[in-house]
Each structure stands twice: as structure tokens, then as C-alpha cells.
Amino acid sequence: MTVQHGEEPRLLFPGLRGFYDRMIPLSWVFVRFGVGWVLLVHGYGKVLRGMAPQVKALEAATPFFGAWNLELAYLLVFVEGLGGLCILLGLFTRFFGAANAIEMGFLTWLYWSNGFSWLNRGYEYVLLWGFMCLAIALRGGGPYSLDRAIGKEL
Questions:
Q1: Which residues contact 126 (CB under 8 A, 6 or more apart)?
Q2: In terms of Cα–Cα distance, which of 110, 108, 128 is closest to 57?
Q3: Distance CA 12, CA 59 (A)
Q4: How much is the pTM?
Q5: How many Å apart are CA 98 and CA 11, to the nearest integer?
């Protein structure tokens, strides 16, 4: 028997249906929390280390940004730091999911010449986070989010 579009597949262990029915709404909280926490800590780490390393990395990798390097570095900290917190809480979730997906797309392009493996400073890690942020942007905050609590999404 094949599964039709929109149908859920049959459970191998039907006795687990109650567990899954209770946990499915929470699954999006776990995804948002994991992505938001990593982005928040990553953005905050940039603040703790100061902006100089980010500006130098931007200068080395993208010399065509010229004088915009500092502004771009601050934008990245804002998108990752505040955006990570908002994704974690489910506030302005679609906006910050999209903003981080765009940033990760840019970073994927930046690291493309290093190859795939993150061990060689490749694009593997930022590509994964980009797809996760894109999924969050498409899905929104989910049932347990501040967006849902206030009844509006950006």
C-alpha cells in the first residue's frame, strides 16, 4: 500500500501514536530552540571577541565591500545575535529565519572555494544552518511561539 499525498504513513508500532500526537507540536520548539541557541551564542561570541576579527575576515574574503566591512559585520552580529534570540522565542520568526538563511547563503558562497568539509573551513556547516533557517522562515514559529501568542507574524 502506498501513502497518498497528505497522508501520514502507518506507524510500525501503533501503540506509540499517543506519544507522537503529544510530541509533534513540541518538535518545532526543539528545532527553534536548537537553531536559535546556536545563532545567539555565535552572535554573542562575536561581540565578546570584538568586531576586529569579523572585519578582517570580511576584508580578506570580500575586498569589494570596502568601507562597508564594519557595517556588514555589525549587521551579521545583529542577524545572528538578536535573530537567534527571536528564533529561540518564536518572535518575528519568519523574518529572522529568512535573514539568517540569506546570511548563511552568503557565507556558503564565501566558503565555496574551500570545498565542502567544515574541517577545511568549507561550506558544509553554513549550508546546513542555511537550510535550517530557511525551513524556519517557511514554517514560522509554530504552535508554541510568541508569534502565535500575540496572534501576528511578521
A1: 104, 107, 108, 111
A2: 110
A3: 54
A4: 0.81
A5: 34
Domain borders along the chain are 27-148
- Which value, to the nearest 10 degrees, does the dihedral of the CA atoms of residues 41, 112, 103, 131 take? -80
> Which DSSP symbol is given to 7?
P
Q: What is the pLDDT of residues 14-58, one digit of tens each?
A: 999 999 999 988 999 999 999 999 999 988 877 776 655 555 555
Contact at 8 Å (CB) between 140 and 152? no
- What is the spatial distance between Cα 104 and Cα 125, in angstroms, rounded to a whole number? 9
Separation CA 33–CA 4 (nearest Å):
32
- Report residue 125 as a C-alpha cell: 556547516
